[in-house]
Amino acid sequence: MVKSEREIIGEAVLKYRKRAGLSQEGLAEKADIHPNYVGRIERGECSATLEILLKLAKAVNVHPHKLFLKL
């Protein structure tokens, strides 16, 4: 089964969150978004705006392009 763009980006967010040693709640706090939204993004259930993806990348200290590498 081919993964959607949302799923690929969500997996990247999850990977970098774990590498940063953050919980979903911790990432949400650093990125100033709701913890449920982090979970939905990681599961590929919703599309995140560019603004949100930039906040997430900054919160886990990675360049934003890394969230898109497997697209």
Explain how this protein is built.
With 71 residues, the chain is mostly helical. The chain has a single domain, classed as lambda repressor-like DNA-binding domains (434 Repressor (Amino-terminal Domain), Orthogonal Bundle). The protein is 58% helix and 0% strand. The protein is built from four helices and no strands. The radius of gyration is 11 Å and the shape is globular. The mean pLDDT is 97.
Helix count, DSSP H or I runs of 4 or more residues = 4
CATH class: Mainly Alpha
Span of the ends, CA to CA:
15 Å
The name CATH uses for the topology is: 434 Repressor (Amino-terminal Domain)
Write the layout of secondary structure elements.
Layout: H1 5-19, H2 24-31, H3 35-42, H4 50-59
Helix pairs in contact: 2-3, 2-4
Brief sketch in words of this structure:
This protein has four helices and no strands.
What are the main properties of this structure?
71 residues; mainly alpha; 434 Repressor (Amino-terminal Domain); 4 helices
